[in-house]
Amino acid sequence: MTALGIGLLLIGVLVVLVLLGVHIAVALLGVGFVGVWIIRDNFELAMRLLSISANSGIADYLFATIPLFVLMGLLVSISNIGKDTFEVAEALLRRVVGGLGVATVAANTVFAAVTGVSIASAAVFTRIAVPEMARHGYRSAFAAGTVAGSSVLGMMIPPSILLIIYGVLAEVSIGGMFIAGVMPGLMLALGFVVIIMMLALLHPSFVFQNVELARRQRLDAPRRVLSWGEIFAKLVPIVILVILVLGGLYTGFFTPTEAGGVGAFGALCIAVAKRRLDRAKMWQVLRQTGEVSVSILILLIAAGFYSRMLSTAGIPVAIGSLVRDSGLGPYGFLFLYAGIVLLMGMILDSTSILLIMVPIAAPIAQSMGFNLIHFGIVTVIAVEIGLLTPPFGISVFTVHTSLGDRQTSVESIFLGTLPFILVMVATLVAVAFFPFLALGLL
Prior knowledge:
By secondary structure, the chain is an all-alpha fold. It contains 22 helices and no strands. It has helices at 3-19, 24-40, 43-56, 65-78, 81-93, 99-115, 118-135, 140-151, 161-170, 174-202, 204-207, 211-220, 228-250, 256-273, 279-313, 315-326, 329-345, 350-367, 372-386, 394-403, 410-433, 436-439. α7 crosses α20.
């Protein structure tokens, strides 16, 4: 069998191993090692490449962004910033049609700008927003679907762990990825707001359990339930943190690593000032930061080794030639790739998809003339959709677990996320056809 045939066979073996429940890092390392060993018929070479990947794979100063942004996100999560943001949004928007749904999206948008983790957003706002929406006549399934749908903003609006992982795998600027994610992230948020208001006006039975009760509560609600002083006090910490991190990053004053350090320190100050951090919680935050960071860094080492195996087998060159000879053209390839990512999102988690697909697809995309930052934004949006699609839909399952309501089934939450999936697909198509939507701020 040729090296190319062995490489393609091992890609299939990798997908099977992941579906069987083998940890993605173990599967990547195992497949990569066996691939290099068989293709080169040299056990020592495989060991040497593994050693090089482990030694150089995460040695760059840039990789400090991962634990720093993870630490910042965890500190923000325990500081009740999510709850404060939702209360402010609710106070300002509750008289708007579908106002509590809009408030959930608005709060999630702000929360995403300082956490970068969709699962954290889903867990936080399930406990905060869903009970409040249900109390005001919203269907629990729609309320949970709104939380799950808007939680994906954490993967697009920087700082985002997925953007960092893609930047490392594709060897592009993480700062550039962050800047490119702003406009598509805001497009998604605006699209979610529009779809909620349209459904509330045109198909209220999909949104409200009791349409009349919801209408009456909206019209009778006070224009503000918080004083301007309370609103100011609740918003100041998160506004300062956003300005520190994103403002410093976009103006070029901070590198991504420095922005992570400043953000983590700012989040620590906020947690201490709000008296939400004791010794036990601090230890919990540090332990979780270590667990999450180490797991991501091991994945990146494994992905680097897997990428070396693919190059040794000639997979990217062969697939690139096949795509060019097929007559699909650049955009035919792009949408075929996005379709494959969407299908993989139904059975695999986001990180696994990036680790498997980016080392194969990024060289092909670059050879076909795509800017890899633009390609990365398309990739992340496609991966995000997988967070909401059955049967995996990790954001939906996170919301269902956090909700703890047996009367609200997983299936009904998946149905509640359908409008958000449609918005995401529309955004994916728009960003794919109009690269300036991702690259305009660079």
